């Protein structure tokens, strides 16, 4: 088995990336609560080790597909704060020029094929990207992120079948945060999720999604095997969503207790856990970690301010980008 | 000039484009050795191999989803959807994913894919293999929709579709696959958004799509025998629609009949008639009349099915009454 990233720079980058995701989400939540953000958004907080552990095993050219809960994947795949906050606020400097918003956010130049607002909607896209890369012979790997709720979509079974038949370089990464929107996953998922992938002959794994090193170690191994033509693979990553289904899902006692949430935050937090490990190994001091946190939070605050002050797209952009070869579709 | 069938014309178009561009590939149910139930793709797998002529499982949403992802990542999939009726199975992948990706990414991602499928009743195939559903996809911004009306049109439009960087849906009339037409040996393409005037006339404009072009031409012949001069226009693509050619014709003739095989209500004929009414109203001497498929599920019995599609006699009779100035309410 390949080793996880093992030098200090790699460790610190993984830590910083997780902190960046948390800081981004905290700011996004504040933008919602202060009514500065149009629409709703879905927080990734609590799941950071999944996105970072996997994306740190990829090159910028490798592709990912993301979900409605996609800010974490976007940051982990290399996106910057300013164009991300601009996108959240519908501004012209957003990654999608304000046309996608939170649920379609992506830094396309870093291999992100997009967040997707249809649950499970990107499973075909990810598998097709893998087909493309196999045909082009460029050795690139595609990771398809989706949640436990998406395992109920029929599309997954169709594309897993083709991925297995054609040995495509795709990794299906199921972030099982225990909740399918407002319903406990055990109420909507029969049997075992890994067994579903295994039924297609796909080698499957179930791991602790709060342990960034464990996630990264497995991801590096599977990415290397995909590049050698041994894909596809399936990983179930057991994780937890700190917020509700979306930022407006505040009173959620009817499906999840405050005690359960507090317990995960106290004893299973991926950032705290990794920080403790880094200190116990003598890699960093607690002051170093505080400094990283402070710096990242200052970056996020500055990016929010930048985005709030930046311009909306001109009204003339409304019919641009409908067709790639037509500047204005309605002209 | 040599004459070939519409089926042969489509086969030639695919083969020529696959020879020209090695990123073009064909996928769908039974497209390889079987050559599809209509034997349209026969011989392609022998020339291009199974890596570029791919038989898929019977998983329409799955393989259309793969095509979307493949198109986003460097290849140009041509998808065979065996019957147009199966569009209902793939609507999320086609309309939520393919159609919107370029727009939602602010123009950064492209989806150069073609969905080839068919339309047309009177094949005694009942309600789930006989529908003409092009209006459904024409309703979705981001998709282009082509409706070839002969072997010549099918070849030229399909080659253009394959070279288009946007998702294109092209509908062939499944009853015309064995119809022959003159098709040059040398390469040609037919641009999208340029209607074809098949016959010039003074008294009434007949606008027909797909196989209804033949209905309009036959109706024009019947009208000529009555001393009425009909102009016949084939829009070729309904998205983009060559509104100018249609409006110029109607301004000249002052009368129009629109004929299409989609259901009459909320469809292509309504759209074209509305544009004529909005933009050429003061040139009209009579209401714009429409013929579409009867608003019933397509019945199996020949005695019933034949009642559901417009005939040359019906179109000629309606046009003649318009020209005689009779008050008219279309059935």
Automatic annotation (TrEMBL), chain A:
It catalyses: N(6)-[(R)-lipoyl]-L-lysyl-[protein] + pyruvate + H(+) = N(6)-[(R)-S(8)-acetyldihydrolipoyl]-L-lysyl-[protein] + CO2. CDD domains: TPP_E1_PDC_ADC_BCADC. The keyword Hydrolase does not apply. Keywords: Oxidoreductase, Thiamine pyrophosphate. One of its GO terms (molecular function) is pyruvate dehydrogenase (acetyl-transferring) activity. Residues 16-312 form the Dehydrogenase E1 component domain. GO terms for biological process: pyruvate decarboxylation to acetyl-CoA. It comes from the Bacteria. It holds the Pfam family E1_dh. Its cofactor is thiamine diphosphate. The pyruvate dehydrogenase complex catalyzes the overall conversion of pyruvate to acetyl-CoA and CO(2). It contains multiple copies of three enzymatic components: pyruvate dehydrogenase (E1), dihydrolipoamide acetyltransferase (E2) and lipoamide dehydrogenase (E3). PANTHER family: PYRUVATE DEHYDROGENASE E1 COMPONENT SUBUNIT ALPHA (PTHR11516:SF60), PYRUVATE DEHYDROGENASE E1 COMPONENT, ALPHA SUBUNIT BACTERIAL AND ORGANELLAR (PTHR11516). This is Thiamine pyrophosphate-dependent dehydrogenase E1 component subunit alpha. It comes from Palleronia sediminis. The lineage of its organism: Bacteria, Pseudomonadati, Pseudomonadota, Alphaproteobacteria, Rhodobacterales.
Automatic annotation (TrEMBL), chain B:
Keywords: Oxidoreductase, Thiamine pyrophosphate. SUPFAM superfamilies: Thiamin diphosphate-binding fold (THDP-binding), TK C-terminal domain-like. GO terms for molecular function: oxidoreductase activity. Residues 4-179 form the Transketolase-like pyrimidine-binding domain. Its cofactor is thiamine diphosphate. Pfam families: Transket_pyr, Transketolase_C. InterPro entries: THDP-binding (IPR029061), Transketo_C/PFOR_II (IPR009014), Transketolase-like_Pyr-bd (IPR005475), Transketolase_C (IPR033248). The keyword Oxidoreductase applies. Gene3D superfamilies: 3.40.50.920, 3.40.50.970. This is Alpha-ketoacid dehydrogenase subunit beta. It comes from Palleronia sediminis.
């Amino acid at each position: 088995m390949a080793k996880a990233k093992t030098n200090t720079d790699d460790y610190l980058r993984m830590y910083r990336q997780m902190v960046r995701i948390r800081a981004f989400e905290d700011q996004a939540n504040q933008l919602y609560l202060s009514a500065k953000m149009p629409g709703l958004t879905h927080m990734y907080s609590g799941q950071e080790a999944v996105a970072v552990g996997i994306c740190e095993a990829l090159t910028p050219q490798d592709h990912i597909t993301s979900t409605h809960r996609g800010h974490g994947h976007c940051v982990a795949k290399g996106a910057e704060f300013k164009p991300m906050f601009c996108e959240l606020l519908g501004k012209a400097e957003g990654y999608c020029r304000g046309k996608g918003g939170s649920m379609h956010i992506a830094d396309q130049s870093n291999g992100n094929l997009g967040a997707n607002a249809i649950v499970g909607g990107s499973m075909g896209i990810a598998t097709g990207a893998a087909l493309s890369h196999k045909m082009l012979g460029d050795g690139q790997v595609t990771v398809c992120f989706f949640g436990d709720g998406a395992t109920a979509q029929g599309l997954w079974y169709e594309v897993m079948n083709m991925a297995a038949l054609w040995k495509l370089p795709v990794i299906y990464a199921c972030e099982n945060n225990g909740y399918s929107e407002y319903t406990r996953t055990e109420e909507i998922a029969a049997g075992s999720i890994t067994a579903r992938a295994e039924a297609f002959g796909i080698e499957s794994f179930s791991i602790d999604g709060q342990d960034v090193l464990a996630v990264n170690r497995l991801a590096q191994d599977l990415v290397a095997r995909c590049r050698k033509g041994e894909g596809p693979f399936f990983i179930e990553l057991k994780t937890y969503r700190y917020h509700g289904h979306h930022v407006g899902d505040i009173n959620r006692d009817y499906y999840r207790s405050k005690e359960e949430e507090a317990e995960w935050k106290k004893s299973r937090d991926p950032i705290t856990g990794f920080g403790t490990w880094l200190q116990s190994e003598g890699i960093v001091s607690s002051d170093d970690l505080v400094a990283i946190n402070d710096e990242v939070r200052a970056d996020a605050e500055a990016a929010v301010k930048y985005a709030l002050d930046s311009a909306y797209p001109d009204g003339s952009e409304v019919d641009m980008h409908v067709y790639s070869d037509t500047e204005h579709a309605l002209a | 000039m040599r004459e070939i069938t519409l089926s042969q014309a489509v086969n030639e178009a695919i083969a020529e484009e696959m020879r020209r561009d090695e990123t073009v590939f064909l996928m769908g149910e039974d497209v390889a050795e079987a050559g599809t139930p209509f034997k349209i793709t026969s011989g392609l797998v022998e020339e291009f191999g199974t890596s570029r002529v791919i038989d898929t499982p019977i998983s329409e949403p799955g393989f259309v989803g793969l095509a979307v992802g493949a198109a986003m990542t460097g290849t140009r999939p041509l998808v065979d959807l065996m019957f147009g009726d199966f569009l209902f199975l793939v609507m999320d992948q086609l309309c939520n994913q393919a159609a919107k990706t370029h727009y939602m990414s602010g123009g950064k991602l492209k989806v150069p894919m073609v969905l080839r499928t068919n339309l047309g009743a009177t094949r005694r195939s009942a309600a789930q293999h006989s529908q003409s559903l092009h209006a459904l996809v024409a309703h979705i911004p981001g998709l282009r929709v082509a409706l070839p009306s002969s072997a010549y049109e099918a070849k030229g439009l399909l080659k253009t579709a394959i070279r288009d960087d946007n998702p294109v849906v092209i509908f062939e009339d499944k009853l015309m696959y064995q119809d022959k037409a003159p098709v040059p040996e040398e390469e040609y393409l037919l641009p999208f958004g340029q209607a074809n005037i098949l016959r010039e006339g003074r008294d009434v404009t007949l606008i027909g799509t797909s196989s209804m072009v033949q209905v309009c031409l036959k109706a024009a012949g019947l009208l000529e025998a009555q001393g009425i001069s009909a102009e016949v226009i084939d829009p070729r693509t309904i998205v983009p629609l060559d509104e100018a050619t249609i409006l110029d014709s109607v301004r000249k003739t002052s009368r129009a009949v629109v004929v299409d095989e989609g259901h009459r209500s909320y469809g292509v004929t309504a759209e074209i008639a509305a544009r004529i009414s909005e933009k050429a109203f003061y040139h009209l001497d009579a209401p714009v009349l429409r013929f579409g498929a009867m608003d019933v599920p397509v019945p199996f019995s020949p005695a019933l099915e034949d009642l559901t599609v417009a005939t040359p006699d019906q179109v000629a009779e309606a046009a003649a009454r318009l020209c005689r100035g009779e008050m008219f309410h279309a059935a």
